[in-house]
Design brief:
Blueprint (H helix, E strand, L loop, with lengths): L4 H11 L9 H18 L3 E11 L5 E3 L2 H12 L7 E6 L2 E7 L3 H16 L12 E10 L6 H18 L3 E3 L4
Parallel strand pairs: 5-6
Antiparallel strand pairs: 1-2, 1-4, 1-5, 3-4
């Protein structure tokens, strides 16, 4: 029996946005449903980080990260992602990480590593490393709740808190 990596790559290409390289929104929900099934059957945790990547051009001119810088961000993310981690389009200019096997604390540490990666060097010419802004909300199953819709709502609320507090990461507190 021969394992054909080209078939795997073909399926992966179908799940990714060809322009950005991120998994599509539909792909994200597909993988999340699979991980939720794994949680129900085996109790495996999973964390989700919903995030925005912004650029600060000074004088309070904060805008979505340009496409070229997004592609560089993805390249950097892939250097620390495991083979089962997913980074995807979520809504509009929001993105999401699906982190199978991680609880809330591990996801916060992952988010901190992501932030350091973004700040290590310019993401594109004319956009200094210190101009990149990460805003992210973190929640997990089972730490936050035990339902995928609730964990996404918790991430969105934590993201709103991060933006309001002007911090990079916020963990949804279910207590």
């Amino acid at each position: 029996v021969e394992f054909d990596p080209a078939l795997v790559e073909e399926v992966e290409r179908g799940l990714k946005n060809p322009d950005s390289g991120f998994v599509t929104r539909a792909g994200f929900f597909y993988f999340m449903a699979r991980e939720y099934s794994r949680f129900q059957q085996f109790g495996s945790p999973m964390a989700v980080i919903i995030f925005e990547l912004l650029a600060n051009y000074g004088s309070d001119k904060i805008m979505p990260m340009p496409d070229r810088a997004l592609k560089e961000s993805l390249r950097r993310f892939q250097t620390i992602m495991s083979g089962v981690d997913i980074v995807a389009h979520y809504k509009d200019r929001q993105f999401a990480f699906l982190l199978p096997g991680m609880g809330a604390n591990d996801a916060i540490q992952f988010g901190q590593r992501i932030e350091r990666l973004l700040l290590e060097a310019p993401l594109q010419p004319g956009l200094d490393a210190n101009q990149g802004i990460l805003c992210a909300g973190v929640a997990s199953i089972p730490d936050t709740c035990e339902h995928p819709g609730v964990v996404l709502a918790a991430c969105e609320q934590a993201l709103a808190q991060a933006k309001e507090r002007k911090t990079s990461l916020a963990l949804f507190s279910s207590r």
